Amino acid sequence: GKHVNTPNRIGQVPGIEVGDEFQYKAELRVVGLHFRTMSGIDYVEVEGVKLATSIVSSERYDFDDKFDADVVIYTGEGGNVINKEKKAEDQKMIKGNLALANSMRHKREVRVIRGDERWDGKGKHYVYAGLYLVDKYWLEKGVSGKSVYKFKLCRIPGQPPLT
Amino acid sequence: GKHVNTPNRIGQVPGIEVGDEFQYKAELRVVGLHFRTMSGIDYVEVEGVKLATSIVSSERYDFDDKFDADVVIYTGEGGNVINKEKKAEDQKMIKGNLALANSMRHKREVRVIRGDERWDGKGKHYVYAGLYLVDKYWLEKGVSGKSVYKFKLCRIPGQPPLT
DNA sequence: TAGACGTAGA
DNA sequence: TCTACGTCTA
Questions:
Q1: Which residue has the higher pLDDT, A157 or A163?
Q2: Which residues lie closer than 8 Å to A66 by C-beta, 6 or more apart?
Q3: Which residues does the UniProt record annotate as the domain YDG (chains A, B) (predicted)?
Q4: Greatest pairwise CA separation for chain A in angstroms
Q5: CA distance B57 to B67
Q6: Which residue is nearest to nucleotide C6 (CA to C1')?
Q7: Which of the 8 DSSP states describes residue B62?
Q8: What is the pLDDT of residues B127-140, one digit of tens each?
């Protein structure tokens, strides 16, 4: 029962290639791709500035992420749309959302992991899609009527294609 | 990202020895010790009879399990003491509780995994304690005032000692 | 202490 | 759909 304790950092992870697949979010942690168990946006704080390291897309709930050839529209975090016992709220420019905004400003790479339904219909599986840059973000009204952040990320050219 | 898909079954797991440690409950699944992500009691159904395969002890909540040299007093499942938004209820002789009762009747071995607080204070770690037999069980009033099952399990002699 | 894009099985 | 002895960070 040994775990690889790779320090969390921005950019490529040694030994991980585009298209690598994983069955559980816990595996993403073990290999160093994404360290937060349940959050979709992972980040580090460098000299007081939060910078995103990775995002994990999921197809559950109202997270209406869009995957195009080289573009991802990623929904920000917060607002408690998940827990049905709590009322939805406007998302705030804090934590992971702030980190993604900072990554845009500072032009830092973000690892993108795509979560899909698993073949057996139980849970999901995760595919490493490569490095992206945040191109822009905006605020829009979500299904609940509350404000939701949307982040447009563009895939950095020169990476192996996603089959 | 490969997982060992050992079929769930009763008794010893090849390659696993008393004292083996694991950092996450997800690892217990990978190695074949315990397949349920969040439940403490795992079981199979053989010819219509539920039989326990393994239990995982945890020190959280009100699960007042007792670990002695060769005896475990294990608290049954159910009653929703965990989710604070729901009221506590009497535990029922169903699912995992029923499986443990059946394992007593049929004298089937049960794997015991002990969960402890981790050295870094974050989460727990898990130690395989070996094979046990259910010796008896009873119903008592828990902290909430509701009925809680208690199972007494005795360690089968001849196994390596727990350090 | 509570929040967060978790998981599998009944 | 809901439950279940989850797990980490802020």
A1: A157
A2: A72, A73
A3: 11-155
A4: 46
A5: 9
A6: A38
A7: T
A8: 999 999 999 999 99
Residues B35-43: contacts with CB within 8 Å, 24+ apart?
Answer: B35/B8, B39/B77, B39/B96, B40/B77, B40/B96, B41/B76, B41/B77, B41/B95, B41/B96, B41/B97, B41/B99, B41/B100, B42/B8, B42/B96, B43/B95, B43/B96, B43/B99, B43/B100
Q: What is the pLDDT of residues A36-47, one digit of tens each?
A: 988 999 999 988
Smallest CA–C1' distance to D9, residue: A36
Q: What pLDDT digit, counting tens, does each position of A61-85 carry?
A: 667 788 887 999 999 998 865 555 5
Q: Which of A3, A21, A27 sits opposite B23 (nearest CB)?
A: A3
- Phi first, then psi, for residue A84 (nearest 5°) are -70, -10
| Chain C, protein-covered positions (CB within 7 A) | 3-10
Helix (H) or strand (E) segment spanning residue A91: none
Q: What tokens appear for B39 in the block?
A: 């439940």
B107, B125, B30, B52: CA torsion to nearest 10: 20
- Top-confidence residue, B157 or B63: B157
Which residues in chain B are closer than 8 Å to A3, comparing Cβ atoms?
23
Q: Looking at CA atoms only, how far is residue B140 from chain A in angstroms?
A: 32
Query: What is the pTM assigned to this prediction?
Result: 0.80
Of A70, A156, A54, the C-alpha closest to A110 is A54
